[in-house]
Prior knowledge:
There is one protein chain. This protein has 282 residues and is α/β, with parallel strands linked by helices. It is built from ten helices and twelve strands. The strands form four sheets. It has a six-stranded parallel beta sheet, with helices on both faces. The chain has a two-stranded parallel ribbon with strand order 6-9. α6 crosses α8 (215-226). It is globular. The mean pLDDT is 98.
Amino acid sequence: MKLLVFGQTGQVARELQRAAPEARYLGRDHADLTNPAACAAAIRASGAQAVINAAAYTAVDRAESDTATAQLVNGDSPGGMAQACAAQGIPFLHVSTDYVFDGTGTAPWRPEDPTAPINVYGRTKLAGEAAVRTSGARHVILRTSWVFSAHGANFVKTMLRLGAERSHLRVVADQIGGPTPAKGIAATLLTLAAALRDGATGGTHHYAGVPETSWSCFARETFAQAGMDVTVEDIPTEAYPTPARRPLNSRLDCAALATDFGITPPDWRAGLAEVIGELKGA
Length: 282
Ligand SMILES: NC(=O)C1=CN([C@@H]2O[C@H](COP(=O)(O)OP(=O)(O)OC[C@H]3O[C@@H](n4cnc5c(N)ncnc54)[C@H](OP(=O)(O)O)[C@@H]3O)[C@@H](O)[C@H]2O)C=CC1
Ligand SMILES: Cc1cn([C@H]2C[C@H](O)[C@@H](COP(=O)(O)OP(=O)(O)O[C@H]3O[C@@H](C)C(=O)[C@@H](O)[C@H]3O)O2)c(=O)[nH]c1=O
Ligand SMILES: [Mg+2]
């Protein structure tokens, strides 16, 4: 299958490159997501049989003050890509986030549950979802959460960096979710791209790591696996002020993906061991 991917340097894009090196990857210099028309034109010129968008504006705090850019990248360009896919008659796969939910309650969010983002990043990602759904393209919107890998910026790498400088860290313990290895997201996207090509009905699906955990427990497991002697103090969200509000309940119910496609949630602790091994080898 001739596959076109938006994104080259991001966590998911890097894992896609490993799993599907034959696909074509467009970095910022080839397709700038602040320019929706250019993204659509890149698809029309590509001759691709399916398109994956693995690029996004993911700086959650910066998005609060850089709203227009976040909206173009997360909202408008995915819409332009999906419309171009609809016109070409090819499927479009898009990645979204737990941050489209408001984080109330403790039940895992199902794909059809009401969305109500509480920060700019989440609102712009939700706008992207809506634009993809109304484009007329056969599509999958794959929501995931708390992505980590050996590449790019993520919580694991932040913790390893801070833990090398300090023996005591304070980390929020009341935001609960599923850390997700980028490698598993890439494999899932490739499986779904093949299924769409073969005529599967798409829709909105959830894919996140298990078991559910807090950021502070995620940090502790990171230090345990890395063999670092760092104590992690549990703190409430209020004790770690940030420009963007973050949902307390980021649990994603991934049952539909298993029922429809046989894809089950990854154990993030195994994914973490792989990533730490990769970082140590680097
Ligand atoms: N990271 C996370 O924790 C989560 C991510 N997601 C979603 O998963 C998907 C993949 O995220 P992830 O791999 O972590 O992303 P990263 O933050 O690792 O990388 C973002 C990618 O988007 C690219 N990008 C940003 N702005 C532009 C632009 N204007 N034009 C072209 N490219 C641009 C970046 O390119 P450059 O290097 O040039 O800046 C980079 O390749 C996204 O849709 C994201 O919303 C969902 C849940 C959690
Ligand atoms: C560095 C640090 C962070 N924290 C908190 C802040 C925050 O609540 C939590 C995680 O921090 P991050 O900056 O990694 O979180 P954030 O960038 O908001 O992560 C999110 O990114 C976007 C793209 C998504 O789609 C989400 O699924 C989620 O992964 O940890 C501490 O409590 N102590 C610390 O020392
Ligand atoms: Mg971040």
